[in-house]
Specification:
Length: 280
C-alpha cells in the first residue's frame, strides 16, 4: 500500500538544519535536473515586482518569496515537520511514531519510521514527489501556478512523474488523499493501470438522507484516514499486503464516518473511496 498526500499550504519554516541536497530527495538521480529547472524559473519570477501576484501569494505569506530565492542556502527539515496544515495535523504521524512501542515494533519486519518513509509519498509543486523524511527548506509554489519557462507546474511534473510512478505503483494499492491540483501531477492510465482509491468526503443530511460533497473538512478526513492506516501498519496490525476490504474496514471505524462506499474501478484501475460523514 502506498498513500499519496498533497503538500500543506501551512508550513513551519525550519530555523536550523542542513542546506538542501537535491540528490538525496526521492528519485534524486532522475529528477534533480527537473527540480533545478523549476527552481531557476521560480527565482526569475520571485525577482519581479509582481511576484506575489504571479504566484498567487497573499499578504500573510509574502515572506515566502524571499524563502523561494533562498532554497539552496536555507536550513531544511523533514517534509513531515515542514508541512503542518490541516491534513498533516489530523494524521498525527509524529504522534504515532512516538507511541509505537518496542513490543509492537518487534512484530514488524520494518521499523515504523521506515514504513512511513517507504509507504507515503507527498506531492509538491517545487519538488514533484518526496518522502516524509526528505529534507526540505521553506518555499511557496502551488501546482496550479504557471511559470514563464516550464508552464503550468502540474503539467510539467506529469510528464516527468508518469514513467517513474507508473513503474513504482503498478503493483500497489494506492490510497489517494491528494487534492485536485496535485492529482493532475499523476494518475494511472488504461495503458499503465494501478489499483487506486481516490478518497472523497461527503456529508449526509440525516433529515433527508441526501449526500453532498464537502470541501471544508475533506482535508481533515483524508488526514484522519491516512493517519489511521499508518497507525495500523506501524503497530503491526496491518500487513504490507493490504486489501481494499481492510482499508474499507479501517475507514468505517473512523470518528464521524457513518458509511463508506467504493465504486467500481475504471479502465485505469481507479475507484472512488467515499467517506460519508453525518451533518452537524
Amino acid at each position: 500500500m502506498i498513500i499519496l498526500l498533497p503538500p500543506s499550504s501551512g508550513k513551519t519554516a525550519p530555523t536550523s538544519g542542513p542546506s538542501l541536497n537535491l540528490s538525496s530527495l526521492l528519485f534524486g538521480s532522475e529528477l534533480t535536473s527537473c527540480r533545478e529547472e523549476l527552481i531557476k524559473d521560480l527565482h526569475q519570477v520571485c525577482s519581479h515586482a509582481n511576484a506575489a501576484q504571479m504566484l498567487k501569494i497573499g499578504p500573510n505569506t509574502v515572506g515566502d518569496i524571499a524563502d523561494n530565492l533562498d532554497v539552496y542556502e536555507a536550513p531544511t527539515t523533514t517534509a513531515l515537520n515542514l508541512y503542518t496544515g490541516v491534513l498533516f495535523e489530523a494524521a498525527k504521524f509524529n504522534q504515532t511514531l512516538e507511541n509505537a512501542t518496542l513490543e509492537n515494533t518487534q512484530k514488524t519486519v520494518t521499523l515504523p519510521a521506515d514504513i512511513l518513509n517507504s509507504e507515503i509519498m507527498i506531492f509538491s509543486g517545487l519538488w514533484g514527489v518526496v518522502r516524509p523524511h526528505d529534507l526540505l527548506p521553506n518555499y511557496r509554489l502551488s501546482a496550479s501556478i504557471k511559470l514563464p519557462t516550464v508552464g503550468t507546474v502540474a503539467t510539467y511534473w506529469k510528464k516527468q512523474l508518469n514513467p517513474l510512478l507508473n513503474a513504482a505503483l503498478k503493483d500497489q494499492i494506492v490510497v489517494d488523499c491528494r487534492s485536485g491540483e496535485y492529482r493532475k501531477m499523476w494518475t494511472p492510465s488504461a495503458k499503465h493501470p494501478s489499483e487506486l482509491l481516490q478518497v472523497v468526503v461527503q456529508r449526509e443530511d440525516p433529515s433527508t438522507g441526501k449526500r453532498s460533497v464537502v470541501s471544508h473538512n475533506a482535508k481533515h478526513m483524508r488526514g484522519v484516514l491516512a493517519g489511521a492506516l499508518f497507525e495500523q501498519r506501524a503497530n503491526g496490525k496491518l500487513s504490507e499486503e493490504v486489501s481494499v476490504s481492510q482499508i474499507v474496514e479501517i475507514a468505517s471505524n473512523l470518528p464521524s464516518v457513518i458509511d463508506v462506499d467504493v465504486s467500481t474501478a475504471n479502465a485505469s484501475g481507479e475507484a472512488t473511496l467515499t467517506l460519508v460523514t453525518a451533518q452537524n
